[in-house]
Structure formats: C-alpha cells, structure tokens
Amino acid sequence: MSASSLRHLERTLVEHDEPQLSPDDYKQVFRRHAAGVAVVTLRDGDRPVGFTATSVISVSAAPPLLAFSLASGSSSWPALSRAATVAVSFLAEGQEEVSTRFATSGIDRFAAGGWTALPTGEPVIVGAQAWVRGRVVQRTPVGDSYLVSLRALDHGVTDAHPLVYRDRVYHRLVAPTA
C-alpha cells in the first residue's frame, strides 16, 4: 500500500462520524472466533526468533500468498522488519505448550527444543501439522500492527489434526459428521 493510499485510508476512517467498537468489544468478538494456531519463525543473524499467531490467512493460490499480522510493539517486530524469509508452522493438537511458549515474552522460546532448522536456516516446529517457508513480499502498517504478506516457496504436511484456539482456550476438533 502506498503512502498516499494509507493517508487516504486514515482520512476516510477519521472523516466518518460513525460509532465504532471499543478495543475491548472488538477483542470480545474475535476471542469467540475459532482459529488455527501457528508459530512464525525466522533467523535474525545467528539468533532464531519466533512468535505465536492466530492471524494467519490464505490470500491467493496463484500465486501462493499468505499473510499474518503482528503488533508493532511486539518484541519480534524488529527482527521481522529485517527478515527476507520466514517459516510458518501450523500447530497440531497436543502442541498447546509450544503455542504458549512462543506467546510468552521475556523467555528464550527456542530453549526447550522441539524445532529444527530447514536447510535454508528458518526454524520449523517438529510435529506441526504443516509448515510453509515464504519470502516476505510486503509489510503494511495497519492500525497498531503490520500485515505481513508472504509468497510461499516450500512446504511440508502431515496427517496430524490442527490445534484450535477460541476464547483463550485450546480446542481439538471432533470427528466430522455427514
């Protein structure tokens, strides 16, 4: 998004004198929206960096694009702002501890293990249901966050079931019904 487009968006949001949701009301809506859980990882020099994300979305199949958001105040943002490539590991049921660890600030999220490096250097989570390695194509400031778009370059998949997060609790999917 160009700087002029961003300014236009900001003016449009300010010009309309419409009621809007408070941040707490908005969070209440999305806490009830079930989402898959992913861990985004990258290399910042020799140091692995990673964080938990429930905001990963598929954008396009041709070309293969995905995106996620990250708060600009996140401790991972400085490294992500410099990264050329990242890996997104889609967690499997039973990986609640991994999700919690990568969502916790102020700790070495990689110290407990459970990850391996791709030949290109990006860490991926062992036992994840799938992973995608992607090249960062755009970092768009939106509100107090950045929307980061990736072009998928490589992947791996398993038959594991996904880890799902809703209303601050992890869930497992039940068997599908006809």
From TrEMBL:
Keyword tags: Oxidoreductase
GO molecular function, one term: FMN binding
Gene3D superfamilies: Electron Transport, Fmn-binding Protein, Chain A
Keyword Oxidoreductase: yes
Residue ranges of every copy of the Flavin reductase like domain listed in the record: 30-172
Pfam families the UniProt entry points to: Flavin_Reduct (PF01613)
GO terms classed as biological process: pyrimidine nucleobase catabolic process
Membrane-crossing residue ranges in chain numbering: none
Protein name: Flavin reductase domain protein FMN-binding protein
Organism listed in the record: Cellulomonas flavigena (strain ATCC 482 / DSM 20109 / BCRC 11376 / JCM 18109 / NBRC 3775 / NCIMB 8073 / NRS 134)
Lineage: Bacteria, Bacillati, Actinomycetota, Actinomycetes, Micrococcales
